């Protein structure tokens, strides 16, 4: 028995092992006695090591398979999420193609989606009832002015629904008095406007546009521009007179669709004499007036490019006519929704940016899809301040 093992065994048995008993083995004898034991142990190691390595290899193989399965699962989830998003980050273009910075010269702020009319072709429908607190709206407008905004247009929905017109009135006054914007305008269906509103806010408003698609009241009702016994055309004429009385430029917006494409409006437009007559081709917007999620279905209102051109040719002698085809209209407007998010219409739907109140103008406007060249090409920049307009009534 080797000396060190003997000493251990003897100690357990209570046997005295004087140092001299180990010394008798000698330094080299002690080492030599250990060698056979270590060699025997080394021979036994492969018997234990090989099964252990095989077991570890099997565990590692299963672990790699588990990791691979987890990666596939998360990749599948990612694809599912992207498929449900309205806009894929692979298709959205955050920067203008020429690399220039977009300036928000003219902005359309649709601060409400609620409306008292039910126009069948509406492309900004009542999907929410949200309206920003007025101080937050003012903060956003101040940011836009600092970024270069010259003109603000308030729209909806119907802008005169909120606080019976006082909400939009206060914003109009703020933009003209505090921000000193060159141009402040509103687009309305006209049904809720009163002369009292003009007395309170008319001096701050440059342009009031009233939507009128036909001078035939039966056609207006077919389209959805009607509210009870009110006559839309009669109301239009009344508002036109108030605009003259309170020195506000008057404008008409018309959407040309299946129900009015053959109408001749030359006499009525000439008599009313608006500063501008915007004539839009009926437009399809997925999620607004087309598709399963839409609140309107526009299919029965759509007209061809040829039909739209025929309407324009019939009214070619109207000097104030400003035509906008689907191509001209789709991406040439900077549109803010009720959350102050820019809406990108390049993919045939309205894909929102983040709110300018959260990320600032420069960040949000990159996802607006705004075609500035088309904006100027369609005549988006014009004499839009009543201080510069010669209002000839």
Automatic annotation (TrEMBL):
Stored Pfam families = Radical_SAM
What InterPro entries is this protein classified in?
Aldolase_TIM, Elp3/MiaA/NifB-like_rSAM, RSAD2, RSAD2/Viperin_antiviral, rSAM, rSAM_sf
Q: Which cofactor does it need?
A: [4Fe-4S] cluster
Q: Molecular function (GO) terms listed?
A: 4 iron, 4 sulfur cluster binding; catalytic activity; metal ion binding
Cell wall biogenesis/degradation found in the keyword field? no
Q: Which residues fall in a coiled-coil region? A: none
Keywords of the record: 4Fe-4S, Antiviral defense, Endoplasmic reticulum, Immunity, Innate immunity, Iron, Iron-sulfur, Membrane, Metal-binding, S-adenosyl-L-methionine
Q: How does it sit in the membrane?
A: Peripheral membrane protein
- Domain (Radical SAM core) spans 101-321
Q: Where in the cell is it found?
A: Endoplasmic reticulum membrane
Which GO terms of type biological process are on file? Answer: defense response to virus; innate immune response; positive regulation of immune response
GO cellular-component terms in the record?
endoplasmic reticulum; endoplasmic reticulum membrane; lipid droplet; mitochondrion
Among PANTHER family, the record links this protein to: RADICAL S-ADENOSYL METHIONINE DOMAIN-CONTAINING PROTEIN 2, S-ADENOSYLMETHIONINE-DEPENDENT NUCLEOTIDE DEHYDRATASE RSAD2
Question: Which family is annotated?
Answer: Belongs to the radical SAM superfamily. RSAD2 family.
Protein name (record): S-adenosylmethionine-dependent nucleotide dehydratase RSAD2
Q: Which organism is it from?
A: Xenopus tropicalis
Q: Which gene encodes it?
A: rsad2
């Amino acid at each position: 028995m080797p000396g060190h093992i003997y000493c251990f065994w003897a100690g357990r048995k209570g046997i005295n092992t004087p140092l001299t008993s180990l010394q008798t083995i000698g330094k080299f004898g002690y080492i030599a006695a250990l060698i056979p034991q270590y060699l025997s142990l080394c021979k036994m190691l492969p018997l234990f090591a090989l099964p252990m390595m095989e077991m570890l290899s099997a565990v590692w193989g299963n672990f790699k398979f588990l990791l691979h399965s987890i990666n596939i699962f998360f990749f599948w989830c990612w694809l599912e999420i992207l498929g449900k998003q309205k806009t894929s980050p692979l298709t959205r273009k955050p920067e203008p193609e020429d690399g220039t910075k977009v300036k928000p010269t003219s902005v359309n702020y649709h601060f409400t989606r609620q409306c008292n009319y039910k126009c069948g072709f509406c492309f900004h429908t009542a999907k929410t009832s949200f309206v920003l607190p007025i101080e937050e709206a003012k903060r956003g407008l101040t940011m836009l002015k600092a970024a270069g905004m010259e003109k603000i247009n308030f729209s909806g929905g119907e802008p005169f629904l909120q606080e019976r017109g006082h909400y939009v009135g206060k914003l109009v006054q703020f933009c003209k008095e505090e921000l000193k914007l060159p141009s402040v305008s509103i687009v309305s269906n006209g049904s809720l406007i009163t002369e009292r509103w003009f007395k309170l806010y008319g001096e701050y408003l440059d342009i009031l546009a009233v939507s009128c698609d036909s001078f035939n009241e039966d056609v207006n009702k077919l389209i959805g521009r009607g509210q009870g016994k009110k006559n839309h055309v009669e109301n239009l004429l009344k508002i036109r007179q108030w605009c003259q009385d309170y020195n506000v430029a008057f404008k008409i917006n018309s959407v040309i669709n299946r129900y009015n494409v053959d109408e001749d409006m030359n006499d009525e437009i000439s008599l009313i004499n608006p500063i501008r007559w915007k004539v839009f081709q009926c437009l399809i917007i997925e999620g607004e007036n087309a598709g399963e999620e839409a609140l309107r279905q526009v299919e029965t209102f759509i007209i061809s490019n040829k039909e739209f051109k025929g309407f324009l040719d019939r009214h070619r002698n109207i000097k104030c006519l400003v035509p906008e085809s689907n191509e001209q209209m789709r991406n040439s407007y900077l549109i803010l929704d009720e959350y102050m998010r820019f809406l990108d219409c390049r993919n045939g739907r309205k894909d929102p940016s983040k709110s300018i109140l959260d990320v600032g103008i420069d960040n949000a406007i990159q996802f607006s899809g705004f075609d500035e060249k088309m904006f100027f090409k369609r005549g988006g920049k014009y004499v839009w301040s009543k201080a510069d307009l010669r209002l000839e009534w």
